[in-house]
Amino acid sequence: MTDIFSTIIGSPIARRVGVPQPTRLRRYEPGMPLCEGPVLVAGGGRFADGLVTWLGELGIRAIRALDPNPSDSGEATRLGAVVLDLSEARDPQDLDALRVVGAPALRSLARNARVVVIGTDPATLGEVSHVATHRALEGAVRSIAKELRHGATANLVLAQQDSSDGVRSAVEFLLSGRSAYVDGQVIRVDDRTGANADAVRPLAGKVAVVTGAARGIGAEIARVMARDGATVVAVDVPAAGDALAAVANEIRGTALQVDVTAADAGRRIVDHAVTRHGSIDVVVHNAGITRDKLLVNMDESRWGSVMAVNLRSILQLNDAILAPGAMPDGGRIVCVASIAGIAGNRGQTNYGASKAGVIGIVDALSTQLAERGITVNAVAPGFIETDMTARIPFATREIGRRMNSLQQGGTPKDVAETIAWLAQPGAAAVTGQVVRVCGQSLLGA
Amino acid sequence: MAASSVPRAATRQPRRVAVLGGNRIPFARANGPYAQASNQDMLTAAVDGLVARFGLAGERVGEVVAGAVLKHSADFNLTRETVLGSRLHPTTPAYDVQQACGTGLEAAILVANKIALGQIDSGIAGGVDSASDAPIAVSEGLRQGLLAANRAKSTAQRLKALASIRPTQLIPAIPQNVEPRTGLSMGEHMSQTAARWSITREAQDELAAASHAHLAAAYERGFFDDLVTGYLGVSKDTTLRPDTSTEKLAALKPVFGKGDGATMTAGNSTPLTDGASVVLLGTEEWAAAHHLTPLAWFVDAETAAVDYVHGDEGMLMAPAYAVPRLLARNGLSLQDFDFYEIHEAFAATVLTTLAAWEDADFCRDRLGLDAPLGSIDRSRLNVNGSSLAAGHPFAATGGRIVASLAKQLSEAGGGRGLISICAAGGQGVVAILEA
What we know:
The complex is a heterodimer.
Chain A: H1 12-16, E1 39-42, H2 48-57, E2 62-63, E3 79-85, H3 96-100, H4 102-107, E4 109-120, H5 128-147, E5 153-159, H6 164-175, E6 186-188, E7 207-211, H7 216-227, E8 231-236, H8 241-250, E9 254-257, H9 265-277, E10 282-285, H10 300-321, E11 332-336, H11 340-343, H12 349-368, E12 375-381, H13 387-390, H14 394-402, H15 412-422, E13 434-437
Parallel strand pairs in A: 1-2, 1-3, 3-4, 4-5, 5-6, 7-8, 7-10, 8-9, 10-11, 11-12, 12-13
Chain B: H1 2-5, E1 18-24, E2 28-29, H2 39-54, E3 64-66, H3 78-85, E4 94-96, H4 103-116, E5 122-129, H5 140-151, H6 155-163, H7 186-196, H8 201-220, H9 246-250, E6 254-256, E7 264-265, E8 273-282, H10 284-289, E9 296-305, H11 318-330, E10 339-342, H12 347-358, H13 360-365, H14 387-390, H15 397-411, E11 416-423, E12 427-434
Parallel strand pairs in B: 3-4, 3-5, 10-11
Antiparallel strand pairs in B: 1-8, 1-9, 2-8, 5-8, 6-7, 9-12, 11-12
Family (chain A): Belongs to the short-chain dehydrogenases/reductases (SDR) family.
Organism (chain A): Humibacillus xanthopallidus
Domain Ketoreductase (chain A): 206-387
């Protein structure tokens, strides 16, 4: 598959004539350190101390301030990440820390570094100036993300009063290579507690169902979840059976051929997961199709099939998954939405509607299932390098790849990593979120 | 596991053998989508689909037994080579078996017997055939000439040997659907038997239409979702004609038999087909350890052969002899079954077999029975379609039938099913499943 590094845009000739060159992103592989270089933890918020202790446990050097006089014997150490905890900011003038602490830190960032700002979720605050202060962080972080270069990203975590587990989980994800293509995002965490029992295989012992797993992003989701320890039930339509079998065999999971729009699909998926593997802990609603046409030319079958697969099937499957005896408390539901569901897309009224509807499911269901400790989230992929996007004409494809802060397309693995994080026991505090995996795409920003 | 749970041979009781599931690739008309696929390719696809369905990747099963009817000389170890190319653990033993169209069912019987005896706890049985990728041999004269040249010690001897080859001997021998001892094709044999039993064209066309309707309905209700895995872009049997009818079938010209009495057409005979199928068998304990629910039990089996060369029996009549022996051993009557799977080599094969069991003279004179076996409830026959609609890649038919019948019995919440498969050389392989 071609990516930007294998096209003429990324060639030495293009480099010589001054075409801006994207950076090869740091992507997670098992055994890799959380980040490369020391982490500056500053800002004086309520989570900073805990994060410093946690980083120490991981063997990562955390520093509380930049050395004002870097040694003259050589170059200053490049920072792997900056975590700016402004959760205790009370007043707009407290935001000056972004400039005072942030500016010198940003000058010292290594390639593929991370900036994570922690604020307090404005929805949990009352006083107007307090709300305004924390709402302001979003504008600042999204702008920082656009200013960063060399594969560095900036994201905002909005916490509640006692969100230390949630903050730790989100910061861990954002500092790691798992979040390579997550940029300019706001992730809210609540004060639910949870931790991964197994750091290397955070999904060990979990049974995960992935729909649409025969190829593309779905196959990669299945692979990443298996790598992280999950037993994967790979689901796809019978017509994709051979590709599905190959994926299931590769990851030592099982293949289940079922059309997610079939009336009994939910029962069959739950039966298979529970009888064969003993549980159904994680469900990733990834199956999706496109049938593009301008609305004026949209026929019933294009509209109906996209709605049936992308939206109605999720509602129907969830009925079975959430029925008694199926998904246990603490389960995880992750949907694959799309930038098209946020920004809309010409020729995709059906697809855009279905994917926006998915976000509606996340909004409503996350609240309903809070009592059971089941989290419901979505990822919204931007331009992802797949066989499908490889068929887009060259010029259009290059524009699509470039229209984001990282100046390149993402990979199916980037989407899969985000989903696998949301499925972790440690991500218990993350629910109702739509995390875009888009390199801070200009679309729907 | 087997070693500790199985008592010493002297006191060992046969164990129940479960049919746990199956997998096949869609069957495809010869020289169609699988024209470039070898037997090993297709059998590997069928095995890997089964492995994926049952989560057996990297696992050693007791034994894999399969075969092919049309076989290249290079495929001398077809099944073992298939295992090595599959996702099963490479320490899984395998062997080939060949009994014409009975190959697939015979493979299942062999695996079931070893499981019953406590020699293995699990096994995969199946078969594959490609009528497209058929072996082509050199003529016997050319072969002898080349072998003589190979043995020659001098150039002169070699030239002499090569000079013995005649131009007509350069024509290759392409395998034909012909019985070696009679020179008649299987269809011609069948047409003689059909004529003897006065099987009508209408009855044959009705059976063919029902086969297509049943298979189409089974696909429609998702029956094959966990029995078939797509292959090379094909997701349904390509010979299936959901919209066929007795009227359409009646319009076809006869292809076997002679004159006005000819009744057998391309519509009521199976087409040459490519495909592969496998079934998973195991003990109850092995099934439980793998969290699998038995679909049905493999109860018993019987084979028979008829003398169609010197005697006057029809070449495909052997199941008519095998079934009563199987019934007698199990204390059953022909009517004690909820489902009948009678392989549709030709519609006429099924109809002559049924007619023979209803015929008092045949049952008395040939089977040695006091009374005819009687008729069956035709609504229980080939309820999910059979070879006329699905196609018939010779060795793959047994696996298709065992898996489909086991699932049907399981879906019905229990019952008993009879399998009957006729085979070239005047043989028949039959079996009983129960759920």
